[in-house]
Backbone:
């Protein structure tokens, strides 16, 4: 798993670091002023470092050389003043970039989320939810760190070094120029280190996605893991992904651990040379004790920001890699928004014309030459073995996918001619796995649909949600728990039916809507289903043939083809596949 993931990473470097920097700068733009105040803070903070070196000269020369009596009070006052200034700068350089960073995180999260709800269904066939989740949580944080902490260090320490160098030049240009010789060497080294950091960061981020994915699967399926005693299996999977994560981290650590000593050693050699020359100058009386000490102090003060600059490469490159992976999501193509035709309310005529369909990820088509025609208000049942393509077939109607060949028509127009939102407003879907959100029953029924309380209550009554909600302490305002965990299958199903009732769309898809229920409850909610289907074109997929007997027409699917079609009586008389299925179900 690890190796495969790595290959993908190295190939997927979608844009250069420079473009990513530029694009990130775009996120900074709205907060220019705040950021500028932050930079001012950094400048003040950096200036106090050079100020500190100057203070050493001021103190030593004033006290030991000039023996100035004012030094007695000037020195403490200057010291406190210097630190107050440093404190103000420190606050500004912490608060302001933090402010900017949190705004950027929120903006990025908003944009990613917006994509997640608008990307085509097919996007989720190839991207696992763990990876997508960790982009939203982990990668955005890394961008925040890069744009705040790292940028702060980067700007402030660069300024500190410039300030100190300026002061050194002022003290002794010859020595300073000599000490700059090692500069280019260090620069080349840092560049190399940056590249490594970015590579390993990307690996870490991808492996975080895997960690989230496996953990999520385990957390979401507590029962199945226990009953199948799959704990060890899950633990092994988890160990594999965390091990990959650990190893990638260690590679980063290795780079981090090596980079510092190497850079420091080079700096130390340079420093030794400078010290040699400075000592010669001092012995020859070309430098005062204050100048000498101050020069050495400034030179020493440079090493700390230099080290921080080298260290910040890690988080900064992590941020760049994280931003690149976020921009991949933001740049993924959205759903085709369809044509310009809009429907007020469709009549509900549905036609499939010679439809062939292949999933983008699959090699072979799963639907072949499917054709049928449903008049407004007709009830078409679709039966067939599982995997025969029933769900795929009905999914083409709200355009989860588009046919590879052929057409799906609504009211005589190709579904693609309608604006996507307008098309989907005509279709309600109730499927086997009812998706409920951790909210009240009421909100789950409305699900963002602008409806009055009275309308929601009416839908709840028709779907007989009332029967069980009345037993609950808060009635329709009861919170159903994560994914409706606090309700039974039948209760969840009724909420789904109420949801579809409320939408009142002219076309209805029931995809095994009652398969999760036992026959008894199914019979109970049959009435609600009848109420739901009334006056609507309905495509009903059902496992139990008893529920489809009343359909106007039954399509029998096998391996992606419609092999038989007709009414219940016709199909029984024909004595084909349907008759076989029927005998199998009713012989006991
Ligand atoms: N998202 C997908 N990507 C690739 N293949 C899929 C996808 N969903 C379903 N399939 C395949 O398409 C075929 C038909 O599946 P489906 O329409 O769900 O059948 P049914 O609803 O009749 O049980 C199956 O072979 C299934 O493996
Ligand atoms: Mg299905």
Residues:
């Amino acid at each position: 798993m690890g190796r495969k993931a790595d290959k993908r990473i190295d190939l997927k470097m979608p844009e250069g670091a420079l473009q990513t920097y530029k694009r990130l700068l775009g996120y900074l733009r709205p907060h220019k002023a705040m950021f500028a105040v932050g930079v001012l803070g950094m400048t003040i903070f950096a200036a106090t470092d050079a100020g500190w070196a100057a203070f050493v000269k001021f103190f030593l020369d004033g006290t030991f050389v000039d023996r100035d009596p004012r030094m007695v009070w000037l020195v403490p006052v200057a010291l406190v003043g210097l630190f107050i200034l440093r404190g103000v700068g420190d606050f500004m350089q912490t608060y302001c970039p933090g402010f900017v960073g949190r705004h950027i995180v929120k903006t990025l999260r908003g944009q990613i989320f917006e994509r997640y709800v608008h990307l085509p269904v097919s996007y989720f066939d190839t991207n696992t939810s763990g990876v997508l989740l960790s982009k939203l949580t982990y990668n955005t944080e890394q961008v925040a760190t890069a744009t705040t902490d790292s940028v702060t260090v980067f700007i402030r320490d660069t300024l500190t070094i410039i300030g100190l160098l300026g002061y050194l030049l002022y003290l002794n240009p010859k020595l300073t120029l000599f000490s700059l010789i090692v500069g280019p060497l260090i620069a080349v080294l840092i560049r190399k280190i940056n590249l490594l950091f970015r590579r390993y960061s990307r690996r870490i981020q991808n492996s975080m996605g895997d960690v989230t994915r496996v953990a999520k699967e385990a957390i979401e399926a507590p029962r199945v893991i226990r009953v199948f005693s799959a704990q060890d299996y899950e633990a092994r999977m988890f160990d594999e992904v965390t091990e990959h994560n650990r190893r990638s981290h260690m590679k980063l650590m290795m780079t981090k651990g090596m980079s510092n000593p190497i850079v420091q050693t080079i700096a130390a050699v340079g420093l030794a040379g400078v010290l040699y020359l400075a000592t010669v100058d001092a012995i020859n009386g070309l430098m005062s004790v204050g100048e000498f000490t101050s020069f050495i102090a400034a030179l020493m003060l440079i090493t700390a920001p230099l080290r921080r600059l080298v260290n910040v490469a890690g988080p900064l490159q992590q941020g760049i890699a994280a931003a690149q992976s976020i921009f991949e999501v933001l740049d993924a193509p959205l759903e085709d928004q369809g044509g310009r035709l809009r429907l007020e309310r469709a009549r509900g005529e549905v036609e499939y014309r010679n439809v062939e369909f292949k999933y983008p990820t699959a090699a072979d088509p799963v639907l072949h030459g499917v054709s049928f025609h449903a008049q407004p208000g007709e009830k078409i049942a679709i039966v067939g073995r599982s995997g025969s393509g029933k769900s795929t077939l009905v999914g083409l109607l709200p355009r989860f996918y588009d046919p590879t060949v052929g057409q799906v028509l609504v009211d005589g127009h190709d579904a693609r001619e309608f604006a996507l939102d307008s098309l989907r407003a005509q279709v309600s879907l109730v499927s086997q796995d009812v998706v409920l959100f951790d909210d009240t029953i009421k909100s789950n029924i409305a699900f963002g649909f602008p409806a009055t309380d009275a309308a929601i209550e009416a839908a709840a009554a028709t779907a007989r949600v009332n029967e069980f909600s009345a037993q609950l302490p808060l009635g329709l305002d009861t919170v159903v728990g994560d994914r409706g965990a606090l309700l039974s299958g039948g209760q969840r199903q009724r909420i789904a039916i109420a949801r579809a009732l409320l939408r009142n769309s002219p076309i209805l898809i029931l995809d095994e809507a009652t398969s999760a229920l036992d026959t008894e409850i199914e019979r109970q909610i049959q009435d609600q289903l009848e109420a739901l289907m009334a006056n609507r074109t309905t495509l009903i997929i059902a496992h139990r043939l008893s529920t489809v007997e009343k359909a106007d027409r039954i399509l029998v699917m096998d391996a992606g083809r419609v092999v038989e079609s007709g009414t219940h009586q016709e199909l029984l008389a024909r004595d084909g596949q349907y008759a076989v299925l029927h005998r199998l179900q009713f012989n006991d």
The first helix runs from residue 2 to 11. Strands lie at 350-357, 367-374, 379-384, 405-410, 413-414, 427-431, 507-511, 537-541, 553-558, 561-566. The radius of gyration is 35 Å. The mean pLDDT is 87.
